[in-house]
Every structure is written in structure tokens, then in C-alpha cells.
Description:
Number of helices: 12
CATH topology of the largest domain: Rossmann fold
Largest sheet: 8 strands, mixed
Distance between the termini: 9 Å
Structural class: alpha/beta
CATH class of the largest domain: Alpha Beta
Number of domains: 2
Number of strands: 13
Helix content: 25-40%
Strand order of the largest sheet: 1-10-7-6-2-3-5-4
CATH architecture of the largest domain: 3-Layer(aba) Sandwich
Oligomer: single chain
Order of helices and strands: HHEHEHEEEEHEEEHEHEHEEHHHH
Shape: globular
Radius of gyration: 21 Å
Strand content: 15-25%
Amino acid sequence: MASRLFQTRSLSCVLFAAVVGVVVSAPVSVAGDDEGVFCGIDILVRDGFKQLDGAKVGLITNHTGLARDGRTTLELLHAAPNVDVVAIFSPEHGLKGVLDARVADSHDPLTGLTVYSLYGKTRRPSAEMLKGVDTLVFDIQDIGARFYTYIATMGNAMEEAAKHDIRFVVLDRPNPITGTHVFGPINDRDGLFTSYHWTPLVHGMTVGELAGMFNAERKIGVKLDVIEMEGWRRSMWYDETTLRWVNPSPNMRSLTQATLYPAIGLIEGCKVSVGRGTDTPFERFGAPWIEERKLALRLNGLGLAGVRFVPFRFTPDSSKHKGKECGGVQIILTDREEFDPLETGLSIVRELKNLFGESFDVDSVNRLMFNKQVLEQVKATENPTQYTPLWKKDLDEFKARRSKFLLYR
């Protein structure tokens, strides 16, 4: 795809790519396998790891770094005769993706190496951790929301790679909630772990595309290579890829939850349970002070596209309101193509504020939204309204910026 893509782009785009320093793998058809999407690691295996030939690799990965045959990126690179894995790094939730707290360094029995945590004492690789590394490889499944922390781990690691003249390689993976859906206001703070770069809350980009944007717009200046996928189209939802679903984090257990996450994640910083400690996180929310029937009636009366709300009571066994019975709603996704997570999420914020007053700490929404102007507008709204016009101009400008970094049709 890369060759075809750059042939059809204008000369200015080609020159731009050269200046940014993005190199993408050449496309080769994958014969003898079924149809579907082939991720960056699959292309790397198919090509005999030639893109990493002779490299001393520091691998940033977790349990989602998998090839189509189920082998991990770590074991594949470790077994490759022309690649030397000399360091391993894990993001939030650890190498196995099961921890829901600060992560300590650990030991990998396969390679005998230390697994350096990038969600513990530090959130970026240090010079000591990078000793002997000439290439950092990133292979982690993102979910497409700005405040999901894996992309900040990638950005931080890119910055450190640039400081130490280390090449950075992204093994690309699909955006599970499509590469066409783009929603929400641009953040007014950047450089944070849940707000690394100026993007809308739902950015519609793959990690490889984001890496190109970060490198150029943040002037990181790292030597960046993206090993592109084959078979992925921007309109694809994850269940259209034929790739197996692996929970990207302990409480992200389905594509439905990933779809709802940008909406329900908005209130995760508030004194509200978002279903952590239950069987369906991000498909429900509640608190002991919420009257579930009143809330469901109000939300269903808004006619929000693609979603319905069922009155519900539940008792989380961990996280917010652990062991306390909560009133709330179970969310039914009826049309994922029509669903607008920001209109839905901010409507929920408004109704919680209007119905339950000071019991709902509305200002805490900005702990993850990072747009004070939009939040003030929501706080001032008593009646149902549409919020998208508040950020349309910024969103249009983002889409124009974004177009320079898209690698897939």
C-alpha cells in the first residue's frame, strides 16, 4: 500500500513525508492465508524481519502484541535469527495486561530480560534502560480514544528515542472503532499521560498514523518507520478485520465497550461508578445517589442517536463505590454507526448535574476531557441541546491536519 499511496500523493505530500522522516514498509501480498487484516507484525514475519535486520531491539509491547497465528511479538522477535531483543518495556496494565494499578518492573522467563515498566516509577524509558538499544519497536493495540494511555507511552518513548539517536518502529494495528469516526473537542492541555497531543477525544487514527503526527507536529525528530497493515480499510470496525479480540486492558472486554468508552470515560474522574468491578464496565454507570428510573426516562427522552438506557441497580466489587448498591443505567448500543460518543457523554453530564445537583462533581469531567470552555458551556445548559457546533471549527482544522498522516484509504 505504501508504494501506491506515495505514487498517488502530490509532490508536496511526498516531500512532507521525507521531511518528517516516516518510512513505511513496502506492500507484498500475503499468500496462502485467509482474507482479513494483517498487522505490522504479520508483515514483518512474512518479510523475514528484514526491516529489523541486525537491529538491537527494545520492544514496547504487552499481551495485545500478537500475530495472526497467536504467537506474541516478543517470542517472534526473540526467535528471529537476524534480530537481537536486548530490552523489554511494558505499558499501563503490565506485559500481560492484567494489572489495574501501578506496575513494577518484572522478569521475562523467555528471554531472561527485565521487563521495564513505563507505568511505575517512570513513564518513559531512561538512558540506563535504553543501553545497548539501537531500535525501539512499538506493538500495542490502542482503542481510538485520546485518554487511553498507550498512545502517550508511545509518544514518550519516541521523545526518548530521539534524544538517544534510536530508531523508532511502529508495528501498526487497526483502530477498533474505525478510522472514519472523529468526534469531540480538541484538548486545551497537552503533554499529559491522558492528553498527550492536540486531538479530538475520538481521533480516527491508527497508532502508526498518530506516530507520524506526533513526530511532525511535536517536532520530535525521531527516525520513524511504520510497518503498515495490509487489508485494513478506514471504515472497518474491529469485528470486520477477522482478527481475534484480546482485551486491551482489564476493563475493556468487548468492542461494544470500546465504542462506548469515549462517552462513559468522560465521567470516570467523577464520583460515579462506570462499571469497573462488574461484568460490563463502560456499558453501565451509577452511584448510590442516582435515581435510576428518573435518569433513564430523561436520557431516553433526548432521542440520542444509536443508544438507549435501561434503569439498573448494581453493586461494584472494586473501584468507585465498591460494595455499595448503585442506581444507574445499563446502556444499549443500538446503532454504532449513528452513535455520537461526545453528544451522548456530554448529555449524560448535563443530566447528572441537573437531576442530582452537587452530588455529581461536574468539574471532575475536565480531568479527562481537558476542555474547560466546552465544560462551562455544558454546565450552563439546562435544556437539551447539541454540543457539536461548539467544536466544529476546531474539528475541521484537525481533520485537515490529520489528512497529511493517513496511511490507509
